[in-house]
Protein backbone atom coordinates (compact mmCIF):
# COMPACT_ATOMS: atom_id res chain seq x y z
CA UNK A 1 0.00 0.00 0.00
CA UNK A 2 1.50 3.32 -1.09
CA UNK A 3 2.10 5.96 1.56
CA UNK A 4 1.56 9.69 1.03
CA UNK A 5 2.82 12.56 3.16
CA UNK A 6 0.49 15.58 3.31
CA UNK A 7 2.32 18.78 4.28
CA UNK A 8 -0.51 21.20 5.00
CA UNK A 9 -1.09 23.54 7.95
CA UNK A 10 -4.77 24.29 7.30
CA UNK A 11 -6.56 21.59 9.28
CA UNK A 12 -9.67 21.66 7.08
CA UNK A 13 -7.73 21.12 3.86
CA UNK A 14 -5.45 18.53 5.44
CA UNK A 15 -8.45 16.54 6.70
CA UNK A 16 -10.17 16.82 3.31
CA UNK A 17 -7.13 15.48 1.45
CA UNK A 18 -6.34 12.82 4.03
CA UNK A 19 -9.89 11.48 4.04
CA UNK A 20 -10.01 11.24 0.26
CA UNK A 21 -6.63 9.58 -0.14
CA UNK A 22 -7.39 7.09 2.62
CA UNK A 23 -10.67 6.19 0.91
CA UNK A 24 -8.71 5.68 -2.33
CA UNK A 25 -6.52 3.07 -0.63
CA UNK A 26 -3.44 5.06 0.38
CA UNK A 27 -1.89 5.32 3.82
CA UNK A 28 -1.36 8.93 4.86
CA UNK A 29 0.29 11.15 7.42
CA UNK A 30 -0.15 14.89 7.93
CA UNK A 31 2.73 17.27 8.71
CA UNK A 32 1.48 20.77 9.67
CA UNK A 33 4.87 22.53 9.61
CA UNK A 34 7.77 22.80 7.19
CA UNK A 35 10.45 21.31 9.47
CA UNK A 36 8.25 18.32 10.33
CA UNK A 37 7.42 17.79 6.65
CA UNK A 38 11.09 17.81 5.69
CA UNK A 39 12.11 15.45 8.50
CA UNK A 40 9.41 12.97 7.51
CA UNK A 41 10.08 13.28 3.78
CA UNK A 42 13.76 12.45 4.34
CA UNK A 43 12.92 9.16 6.08
CA UNK A 44 12.16 7.47 2.72
CA UNK A 45 8.98 6.05 4.25
CA UNK A 46 6.71 7.85 1.79
CA UNK A 47 6.02 7.36 -1.91
CA UNK A 48 4.70 10.86 -2.69
CA UNK A 49 4.53 14.29 -1.03
CA UNK A 50 1.60 16.70 -1.29
CA UNK A 51 3.29 19.97 -0.33
CA UNK A 52 1.63 23.27 0.55
CA UNK A 53 3.77 26.30 -0.28
CA UNK A 54 2.65 28.37 2.74
CA UNK A 55 3.84 26.18 5.59
CA UNK A 56 4.88 27.72 8.93
CA UNK A 57 8.43 27.34 10.21
CA UNK A 58 9.83 26.65 6.74
CA UNK A 59 7.94 27.36 3.54
CA UNK A 60 7.30 24.76 0.86
CA UNK A 61 9.98 26.15 -1.45
CA UNK A 62 12.67 25.53 1.17
CA UNK A 63 11.30 22.08 1.98
CA UNK A 64 11.41 21.22 -1.72
CA UNK A 65 14.91 22.68 -2.14
CA UNK A 66 16.34 20.69 0.75
CA UNK A 67 14.51 17.54 -0.30
CA UNK A 68 15.89 17.69 -3.83
CA UNK A 69 19.28 18.73 -2.48
CA UNK A 70 19.37 15.48 -0.52
CA UNK A 71 19.03 13.53 -3.76
CA UNK A 72 15.43 12.48 -3.20
CA UNK A 73 13.41 11.83 -6.35
CA UNK A 74 10.12 11.29 -4.52
CA UNK A 75 7.23 12.73 -6.57
CA UNK A 76 6.03 16.08 -5.19
CA UNK A 77 2.74 17.82 -5.94
CA UNK A 78 2.68 21.40 -4.68
CA UNK A 79 -0.43 23.25 -3.50
CA UNK A 80 -0.56 26.94 -4.41
CA UNK A 81 -3.03 29.79 -3.93
CA UNK A 82 -5.28 30.49 -6.90
CA UNK A 83 -3.67 33.11 -9.08
CA UNK A 84 -0.24 32.33 -7.65
CA UNK A 85 1.31 31.79 -11.06
CA UNK A 86 4.77 32.84 -9.92
CA UNK A 87 4.61 30.32 -7.05
CA UNK A 88 3.61 27.58 -9.48
CA UNK A 89 6.47 28.29 -11.87
CA UNK A 90 8.97 28.62 -9.00
CA UNK A 91 7.83 25.32 -7.52
CA UNK A 92 8.01 23.45 -10.81
CA UNK A 93 11.41 24.89 -11.62
CA UNK A 94 12.53 23.96 -8.09
CA UNK A 95 11.83 20.28 -8.71
CA UNK A 96 8.10 19.73 -8.11
CA UNK A 97 6.45 17.22 -10.44
CA UNK A 98 3.01 18.78 -10.55
CA UNK A 99 0.81 21.38 -8.88
CA UNK A 100 -2.75 22.12 -7.78
CA UNK A 101 -4.21 25.59 -7.24
CA UNK A 102 -6.47 26.11 -4.22
CA UNK A 103 -9.37 25.63 -4.04
CA UNK A 104 -9.31 22.36 -5.95
CA UNK A 105 -11.52 19.36 -6.59
CA UNK A 106 -10.33 16.20 -4.90
CA UNK A 107 -10.92 14.05 -7.99
CA UNK A 108 -8.40 16.14 -9.93
CA UNK A 109 -5.82 15.84 -7.15
CA UNK A 110 -6.38 12.09 -7.04
CA UNK A 111 -5.86 11.83 -10.80
CA UNK A 112 -2.55 13.67 -10.52
CA UNK A 113 -1.46 11.53 -7.57
CA UNK A 114 -2.17 8.36 -9.54
CA UNK A 115 -0.33 9.61 -12.61
CA UNK A 116 2.77 10.57 -10.63
CA UNK A 117 2.73 7.33 -8.65
CA UNK A 118 2.40 5.27 -11.82
CA UNK A 119 5.31 7.10 -13.44
CA UNK A 120 7.49 6.59 -10.37
CA UNK A 121 6.55 2.91 -10.11
CA UNK A 122 7.42 2.24 -13.75
CA UNK A 123 10.73 4.03 -13.40
CA UNK A 124 9.88 6.14 -16.44
CA UNK A 125 10.89 9.77 -16.37
CA UNK A 126 8.10 12.23 -17.02
CA UNK A 127 9.13 14.37 -19.97
CA UNK A 128 8.96 18.11 -19.33
CA UNK A 129 7.76 18.78 -22.89
CA UNK A 130 5.66 16.75 -25.30
CA UNK A 131 4.93 17.46 -28.95
CA UNK A 132 2.96 15.95 -31.82
CA UNK A 133 2.16 17.46 -35.22
CA UNK A 134 2.66 21.06 -34.14
CA UNK A 135 0.96 20.58 -30.76
CA UNK A 136 3.40 21.34 -27.94
CA UNK A 137 2.70 20.76 -24.24
CA UNK A 138 4.93 22.13 -21.47
CA UNK A 139 4.25 19.76 -18.59
CA UNK A 140 5.88 21.92 -15.92
CA UNK A 141 4.14 25.21 -16.76
CA UNK A 142 0.94 23.52 -18.07
CA UNK A 143 1.01 25.63 -21.22
CA UNK A 144 -0.03 24.49 -24.68
CA UNK A 145 0.93 25.80 -28.12
CA UNK A 146 -0.30 25.08 -31.64
CA UNK A 147 2.30 25.87 -34.30
CA UNK A 148 3.93 28.28 -31.85
CA UNK A 149 0.67 29.99 -30.87
CA UNK A 150 -0.32 29.67 -27.19
CA UNK A 151 -3.70 28.06 -26.54
CA UNK A 152 -5.55 28.49 -23.25
CA UNK A 153 -6.50 25.07 -21.79
CA UNK A 154 -8.18 24.36 -18.47
CA UNK A 155 -6.46 21.96 -16.09
CA UNK A 156 -8.68 19.08 -17.14
CA UNK A 157 -8.32 19.87 -20.85
CA UNK A 158 -4.54 19.94 -20.46
CA UNK A 159 -4.51 16.58 -18.62
CA UNK A 160 -6.64 15.02 -21.37
CA UNK A 161 -4.42 16.46 -24.11
CA UNK A 162 -1.34 15.18 -22.26
CA UNK A 163 -2.75 11.67 -22.10
CA UNK A 164 -3.59 11.71 -25.82
CA UNK A 165 -0.15 13.00 -26.81
CA UNK A 166 1.64 10.44 -24.64
CA UNK A 167 -0.25 7.73 -26.52
CA UNK A 168 -0.38 9.36 -29.96
CA UNK A 169 -1.53 6.88 -32.60
CA UNK A 170 -3.09 4.56 -30.04
CA UNK A 171 -6.80 4.17 -29.43
CA UNK A 172 -7.76 5.08 -25.85
CA UNK A 173 -11.15 3.96 -24.61
CA UNK A 174 -13.46 6.23 -22.63
CA UNK A 175 -12.86 4.04 -19.58
CA UNK A 176 -9.09 4.44 -19.89
CA UNK A 177 -9.39 8.22 -20.19
CA UNK A 178 -11.76 8.42 -17.24
CA UNK A 179 -9.37 6.44 -15.06
CA UNK A 180 -6.20 8.26 -16.10
CA UNK A 181 -7.49 11.82 -16.32
CA UNK A 182 -10.37 11.97 -13.85
CA UNK A 183 -8.89 9.38 -11.49
CA UNK A 184 -12.04 7.47 -10.66
CA UNK A 185 -14.91 5.72 -12.38
CA UNK A 186 -17.87 7.76 -13.50
CA UNK A 187 -21.32 6.42 -14.25
CA UNK A 188 -20.86 4.28 -17.41
CA UNK A 189 -23.48 6.46 -19.05
CA UNK A 190 -21.52 9.66 -18.42
CA UNK A 191 -20.51 11.65 -21.50
CA UNK A 192 -17.82 13.72 -19.72
CA UNK A 193 -15.03 12.37 -21.96
CA UNK A 194 -16.99 13.20 -25.11
CA UNK A 195 -17.65 16.71 -23.80
CA UNK A 196 -13.96 17.38 -23.12
CA UNK A 197 -12.91 15.86 -26.43
CA UNK A 198 -15.24 18.38 -28.09
CA UNK A 199 -13.62 21.19 -26.08
CA UNK A 200 -10.17 20.07 -27.25
CA UNK A 201 -11.25 19.80 -30.86
CA UNK A 202 -12.57 23.35 -30.73
CA UNK A 203 -9.26 24.62 -29.35
CA UNK A 204 -6.70 22.35 -31.02
CA UNK A 205 -8.38 21.59 -34.36
CA UNK A 206 -11.12 19.12 -35.20
CA UNK A 207 -8.86 16.95 -37.36
CA UNK A 208 -6.36 16.15 -34.60
CA UNK A 209 -8.53 13.77 -32.55
CA UNK A 210 -10.11 10.86 -34.36
CA UNK A 211 -13.18 9.00 -33.09
CA UNK A 212 -12.78 5.24 -33.49
CA UNK A 213 -16.35 4.01 -33.43
CA UNK A 214 -17.10 1.59 -30.63
CA UNK A 215 -13.56 1.86 -29.23
CA UNK A 216 -12.62 5.38 -28.19
CA UNK A 217 -10.37 8.21 -29.38
CA UNK A 218 -6.99 8.52 -31.02
CA UNK A 219 -4.66 11.44 -31.60
CA UNK A 220 -4.06 11.11 -35.31
Automatic annotation (TrEMBL):
Residues 127-220 form the OmpR/PhoB-type domain. The modification 4-aspartylphosphate is found at residue 52. The keyword Transcription regulation does not apply. The keyword Phosphoprotein applies. Keywords: DNA-binding, Phosphoprotein. It holds the Pfam family Response_reg. Residues 3-117 form the Response regulatory domain. Residues 127-220 bind DNA. It comes from the Bacteria. SUPFAM superfamilies: CheY-like. SMART domains: REC (SM00448), Trans_reg_C (SM00862). Gene3D superfamilies: 3.40.50.2300, 6.10.250.690, Winged helix-like DNA-binding domain superfamily/Winged helix DNA-binding domain (1.10.10.10). PROSITE patterns: OMPR_PHOB, RESPONSE_REGULATORY. This is Response regulator transcription factor.
Amino acid sequence: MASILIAEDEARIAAFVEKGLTAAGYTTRVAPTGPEALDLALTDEFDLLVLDIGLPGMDGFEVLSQLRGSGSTMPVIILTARGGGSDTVAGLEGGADDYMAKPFRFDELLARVRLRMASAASGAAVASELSHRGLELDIRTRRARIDGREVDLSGREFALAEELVRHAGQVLSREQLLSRVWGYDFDPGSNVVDVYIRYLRNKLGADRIETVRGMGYRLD
